[in-house]
């Protein structure tokens, strides 16, 4: 069984994760994330193993037992990080790097002598960070560039076209270079021009009624917490998503995004690399963001899991580091999992589920690590379990 670290970032909800864990709620203390994994910055603890080692320490000392075939593939590291995320306020507008950019950035900042825990550090590890977010509640997000025609129409409806000369180039060319020039202009917006843009957008949202409702709603979510930030314009050029419980979004590296409100299960490559462009008090590096983005419209649909027998709900994504499924355990029925000698993590989000062979009970918020030498497990009881594994 695992004891998992909590992250008290300012955007977190004081309620969702403490209530999931059946802990006392303190409205003054945000709980943004619970990490379940073996990241160097903060690892889960094996609470029932003698000495209570961290999961990371255990894996480093027993790589073959813990990881099996994944040990050689991922150099003795668990290749994914699982999280419960609960956002009360918008997260930063951000992007995650590709593998190539993560390696170069990590070693460059090491060479410059920037400490790993420095607030100005961009790259905290040399890994890419593709990620999948599965909603536990209704979940609002911004994800990826809109089509150029949509961007132009939205800025026109908001009466903002004349403020952004780069939109003329985007209208004529609609290529990667034009989209990059526009992004550079809108992310670097500041001073009197930013004040003017927000004033016009505010008027357009509340008085003109020319903008789509999804843009107005996203703007309102951001406006509650940010008065003067270029990120207030982001719903005009990023896609707006509202996920229902069980629905998911996949984010590959290079995609600009922000989670606005809601709770979900998040799985990603074992990385904490975040490059921020706005909507935050943390370190912002717009130049590095611009160097990391993929300048293409993001044609991304909401992901629905593949349903097998109303028990297995499998989220298919094009990555090698992780796969995720939710398991719906029903009363009176046992479920045997075939694990293919790969490591995994079980996390309960609802009900009470028994791991029969080990006589362990998973209740909401509880998690267990599965070593690669366990080829199958039997689950019983009633509830929802999230299974994170490495693809076989």
Folded structure, characterized:
Helices cover 27% and strands 29% of the residues. The protein is α+β, with helices and mostly antiparallel strands and 392 residues long. The protein folds into 2 domains: 2-142 and 243-292, Jelly Rolls, CATH 2.60.120.10; 306-389, Jelly Rolls (Sandwich), CATH 2.60.120.10. The strands form 5 sheets. Strands 2, 3, 7, 9, 10, 11, 12 and 13 form an 8-stranded antiparallel β-sheet that branches. Strands 15, 16, 17, 18, 19, 20, 21 and 22 form an 8-stranded antiparallel β-sheet that branches. A hairpin with a 3-residue loop joins strand 15 (306-308) and strand 16 (312-315). The two termini are 23 Å apart. The model has no long low-confidence stretch (mean pLDDT 95).
Q: Would you summarize the structure shown here?
A:
The chain has 392 residues and is an alpha+beta fold.
Q: How many domains make up the coordinates?
A: 2
Apparent shape? globular
CATH top level class name of the largest domain: Mainly Beta
Gap from first CA to last CA:
23 Å
CATH architecture of the largest domain: Sandwich
Helix-strand makeup class: alpha+beta
Descriptive keywords:
392 residues, alpha+beta, Jelly Rolls, 2 domains, 8-stranded antiparallel β-sheet, 27% helix, 29% strand
């Amino acid at each position: 069984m695992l004891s998992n670290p909590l992250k008290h970032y300012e955007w977190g909800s004081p309620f969702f994760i403490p209530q999931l864990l059946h802990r006392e709620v303190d409205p003054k203390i945000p709980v943004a994330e619970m990490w379940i994994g073996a990241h160097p910055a903060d690892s889960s603890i094996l609470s029932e193993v003698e000495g209570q080692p961290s999961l990371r320490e255990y894996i480093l000392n027993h790589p073959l037992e813990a990881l099996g075939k994944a040990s050689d593939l991922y150099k003795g590291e668990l290749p994914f990080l699982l999280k419960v995320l609960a956002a009360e306020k918008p997260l930063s507008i951000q992007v995650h790097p590709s593998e190539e950019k993560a390696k170069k950035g990590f070693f460059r900042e090491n060479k410059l002598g920037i400490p790993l825990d420095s607030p100005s550090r961009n790259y905290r590890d040399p890994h890419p960070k593709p990620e999948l977010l599965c909603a536990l509640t209704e979940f609002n997000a911004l994800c990826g560039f809109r089509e150029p025609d949509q961007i132009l129409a939205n800025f026109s409806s908001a009466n903002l076209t004349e403020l952004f000369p780069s939109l003329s180039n985007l209208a004529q060319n609609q290529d990667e270079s034009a989209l990059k020039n526009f992004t550079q202009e809108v992310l670097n917006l500041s001073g009197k021009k930013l004040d003017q843009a927000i004033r016009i957008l505010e008027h357009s949202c509340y008085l003109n009624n020319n903008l789509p409702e999804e843009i107005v709603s996203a703007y309102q979510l951001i406006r509650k917490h940010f008065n003067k930030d270029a990120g207030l314009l982001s719903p005009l050029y990023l896609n707006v998503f509202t996920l229902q419980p069980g629905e998911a979004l996949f984010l590959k590296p290079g995609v600009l995004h922000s989670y606005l409100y809601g709770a979900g299960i998040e799985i990603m490559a074992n990385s904490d690399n975040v490059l921020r462009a706005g909507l935050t008090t943390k370190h912002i590096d717009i130049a590095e963001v611009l160097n990391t983005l993929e300048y293409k419209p993001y044609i991304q649909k909401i992901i629905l899991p593949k349903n097998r027998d109303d028990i297995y709900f499998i989220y298919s994504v094009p990555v090698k580091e992780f796969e995720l499924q939710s398991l719906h355990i029903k009363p009176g029925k046992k479920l045997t999992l075939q694990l293919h000698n790969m490591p995994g993590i079980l996390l309960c989000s609802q009900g009470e589920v028994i791991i029969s062979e080990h006589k362990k009970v998973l209740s909401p918020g509880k998690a267990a690590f599965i070593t690669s030498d366990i080829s199958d497990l039997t689950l019983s009881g009633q509830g929802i379990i999230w299974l994170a594994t490495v693809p076989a």
